[in-house]
Amino acid sequence: MSLLTILEYPDERLRTRAQPVETVDDDLRRLINDMFDTMYDAPGIGLAATQVDVHKRVIVMDVSEEKNHPLVLINPEVTPLGEEREPLQEGCLSIPEYYAEVPRALRVHLKAQDRNGKAYELEADGLLAHCIQHEVDHLEGVLFVDYLSPLKRDRVKKKMLKRQKTAS
Ligand code: GNR
Ligand code: NI
């Protein structure tokens, strides 16, 4: 078991746009295993490779209560279904101890590859739909605080910088 270091806002590396994965091999599966270890340990319901400073289009997720439904998203493509938006309280492992409501599409269609490189598609709603959109944003260098007012975002930034100064 290997725990990876999670980058914290306002680290500029979180703004990197991730590159598509071309081959799903053992090295990538090792990264995926380490990302699951890191996500479950945190604990969190999702983790994008961007957050561990690997700029590839890879996401791990588990929104189940029992933590027994791991989901791997390689090269995800997300399409919102319908116009309906739903606000939901979000948190982010890269912005510890801060939560805010973010409106996102209620339902999405997802196309991605699994840990064997096999393509799959699914439709999601509720927490899974929110989480998918949150994680895919990470691959684009977008954080949920980007949806807040500049004033709020600035307050979060100051809070995080202060937190990082006094940490460990
Ligand atoms: O653990 C997490 N919880 C969460 C709650 C609501 C919406 C999105 C998330 S994702 C977050 C983990 C994380 O930072 N993933 O990038
Ligand atoms: Ni996040």
UniProtKB/TrEMBL annotation:
Function: Removes the formyl group from the N-terminal Met of newly synthesized proteins. Requires at least a dipeptide for an efficient rate of reaction. N-terminal L-methionine is a prerequisite for activity but the enzyme has broad specificity at other positions.
Protein name per UniProt: Peptide deformylase
Gene for this chain: def
Key words of the record: Hydrolase, Iron, Metal-binding, Protein biosynthesis
One Gene Ontology molecular-function label: peptide deformylase activity
Gene3D superfamilies per record: Peptide deformylase
Organism classification: Bacteria, Pseudomonadati, Pseudomonadota, Gammaproteobacteria, Oceanospirillales
Binding-site positions, Fe cation: 92, 134, 138
Species, as recorded: Kushneria aurantia
Domain of life: Bacteria
Entry's family note: Belongs to the polypeptide deformylase family.
Assigned EC number: 3.5.1.88
